[in-house]
């Protein structure tokens, strides 16, 4: 399966474009990359906190509560913990990137 050769060549030659990007375009690209990195950092931090915050009660419940002991096997425990972590990551990363983009939009309005 793979990428068709024409598509692959077009993608590879995209960087060798004869057009020269303006400094403003370079700044926009740099700010968007910084927003993405900021979102990833915030998402990882939120996911790690959510992981601990859900792992502790889940593992305690499985050892203490009879219903949880009978019904939550290892897969269910892993799904509970990972679902909370994944949700925290994506929600936080999305909010952070949007907030950063909003900041950059206001930055662009003031500089124009």
TrEMBL record:
Q: Any transmembrane segments, and where?
A: 46-68, 74-93
The domain of life for this entry's organism is Eukaryota
List the signal peptide residues. none
Q: Which Pfam families match?
A: ENOD93
Q: Which InterPro entries match?
A: Enod93 (IPR005050)
The UniProt keyword set, sorted, is:
Membrane, Transmembrane, Transmembrane helix
Name recorded for this polypeptide: Early nodulin-93-like
- Native species: Rhododendron griersonianum
